[in-house]
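Appendix C: a fully annotated inverse folding record. The material below is reproduced so that readers can follow the format used throughout the book. The structure is listed first as tokens, followed by the designed sequence.
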């Protein structure tokens, strides 16, 4: 018996598209299944001003496959020199959807990020006043904090004080990886939501390190213990409106991952929906996939859910995806969930 699941077309609330040849190679992988995505601004140099965001949005639109109606939702990279007026103007004009906070040094291309939160207080106050959401990479960067603890420490040292100081600021704690983050988000009564990636629902830190180091499972925040993965799976499949999909699909060409000091990032755009359907089915929660992938994020950002629908089909035999996608800059390895996949989005999205 063929099983199908029809959902409103999903959105990806955290996506890296990069630029140039990589942008052209990876954009169709997301535009195929997703209607919209929050586009990360950590280019080199980063997307800091409204002018930068306009130019980047135009490059993304120019790289879209013919006939695609995918909408990039742009973000600005918060720096200690960000001009509050530029942020508010860019948001009010509809150019940007959110601002992204990277603690300096936390991850790929975060060198221009924030070192001292006091320096960005005026921008954050303006954002709170004008309803501009703040997406955050929630990890401290102190050398004396163990990398596996950096998210939990961020909650205590940065996120909680910020939310107490600016309760009207709408915050998205992105790519959460710990039971502590799940607990913190669930305890919040307003203006806090979280995204969870596809890969953090699948891998724990053993996948990364047991039997040899696996660079394609290295991402930031780094995958944690199994008990944390279980907490993420329970939260993602619960239907709770404060949690939604942000794949953090982060392409790096193989040469920069399979090396002595490899980049962080899992490239999941190609098979994300298949993997999510598998995870939600495993958890007995296929009926919650639409909330996670297609409804909760739009509602939190104050946007309408997509009218178009997408159908996922469960095939009797495993479906296959390319191991790598090709790109003039070099091959990019597609995330391997480590189990066969049976679900696949079938055909072009239907409208209505
Ligand atoms: O794994 C990651 N890759 N985490 C991030 O925060 C950044 C991203 C990237 O840009 O490659
Ligand atoms: Zn990211």
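Designed amino acids, in order:
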């Amino acid at each position: 018996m063929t099983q199908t699941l029809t959902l409103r077309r999903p959105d990806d609330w955290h996506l890296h598209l990069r630029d140039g040849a990589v942008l052209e190679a990876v954009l169709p992988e997301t535009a195929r299944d997703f209607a919209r995505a929050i586009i990360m601004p950590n280019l080199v140099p980063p997307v800091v001003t409204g002018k930068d965001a306009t130019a980047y949005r135009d490059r993304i639109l120019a790289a879209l496959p013919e006939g695609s109606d995918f909408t990039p939702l742009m973000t600005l990279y918060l720096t200690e020199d960000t001009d509050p007026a530029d942020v508010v103007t860019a948001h009010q004009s509809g150019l940007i959807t959110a601002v992204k906070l990277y603690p300096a040094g936390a991850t790929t291309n975060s060198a221009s990020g924030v070192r001292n939160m006091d320096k960005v207080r005026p921008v954050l106050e303006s954002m709170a006043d004008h309803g501009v959401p703040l997406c955050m990479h929630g990890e401290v960067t102190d050398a004396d904090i163990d990398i596996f603890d950096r998210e939990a420490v961020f909650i205590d040292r940065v996120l909680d004080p910020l939310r107490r100081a600016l309760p009207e600021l709408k915050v998205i704690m992105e790519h959460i990886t710990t039971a502590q983050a799940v607990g913190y988000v669930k305890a919040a009564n307003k203006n806090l939501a979280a995204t969870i990636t596809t890969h953090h629902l699948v891998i724990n830190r053993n996948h990364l390190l047991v039997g040899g180091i696996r660079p394609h499972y290295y991402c930031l925040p780094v995958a944690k213990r199994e008990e944390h993965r279980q907490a993420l799976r329970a939260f993602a499949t619960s239907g709770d409106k404060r949690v939604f999909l942000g794949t953090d699909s982060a392409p790096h060409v193989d040469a920069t991952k399979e090396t002595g000091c490899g980049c962080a990032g899992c490239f999941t755009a190609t098979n994300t929906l298949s993997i999510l359907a598998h995870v939600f089915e495993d958890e007995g929660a296929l009926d919650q996939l639409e909330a996670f992938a297609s409804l909760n994020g739009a509602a939190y950002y104050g946007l309408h859910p997509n009218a178009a629908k997408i159908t996922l089909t469960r095939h009797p035999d495993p479906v296959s995806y390319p191991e790598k996608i090709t790109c003039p800059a070099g091959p990019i390895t597609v995330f391997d969930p480590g189990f066969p996949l049976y679900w696949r989005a079938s055909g072009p999205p239907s409208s209505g």
